């Protein structure tokens, strides 16, 4: 992997990470009861979350200018790791044996592809 591909891979990974952050914000906000349809979607956390999604999309577009598509898919799969970690930290979700096996398979796939 060249230095340029590495740098752009980090850009894609950062985009994947902030996309996970955005999903956490939206999930937190979904648990709050809104007075109206408008207030449900036009409030600061939701607007910020969608702004973060937009930034993640831009970062992915920038990253894919250099990162091969075959590597991009592998980098995108790290979102499952970020989302699982966020679920455990912010939503007190349980880390079950089934999730551990799934995460191990994802990590194994990432390692196999990168070797």
Q: Main beta sheet, described?
A: none
Query: Structurally, how many domains make up the residues?
Result: 1
Shape: flat
Strand content: under 5%
Q: Separation of termini?
A: 10 Å
Descriptive notes:
- There is one protein chain.
- This protein has helices at residues 3-30, 37-41, 44-63, 69-76, 79-91, 97-114.
- The protein is mainly α.
- The radius of gyration is 16 Å and the shape is flat.
- The chain has one domain (3-114).
- It is built from six helices and no strands.
- The model has no long low-confidence stretch (mean pLDDT 93).
- The termini are close together.
Write the layout of secondary structure elements.
Layout: H1 3-30, H2 37-41, H3 44-63, H4 69-76, H5 79-91, H6 97-114
Concise overview:
The protein is mostly helical and 115 residues long. The protein is built from 6 helices and no strands.
Which properties best describe this structure?
80% helix, mainly alpha
């Amino acid at each position: 992997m060249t230095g340029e591909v590495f740098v752009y891979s980090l850009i894609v990974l950062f985009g994947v990470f902030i996309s996970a952050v955005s999903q956490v914000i939206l999930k937190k906000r979904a648990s709050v009861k809104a007075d109206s349809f408008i207030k449900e979607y036009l409030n600061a956390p939701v607007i910020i979350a969608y702004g973060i999604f937009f930034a993640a999309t831009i970062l992915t577009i920038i990253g894919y200018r250099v990162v091969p598509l075959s590597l991009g898919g592998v980098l995108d799969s790290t979102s499952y790791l970020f989302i699982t970690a966020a679920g455990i930290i912010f939503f007190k979700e349980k880390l079950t044996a089934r999730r551990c096996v799934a995460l191990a398979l994802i990590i194994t796939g990432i390692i196999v592809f990168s070797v």
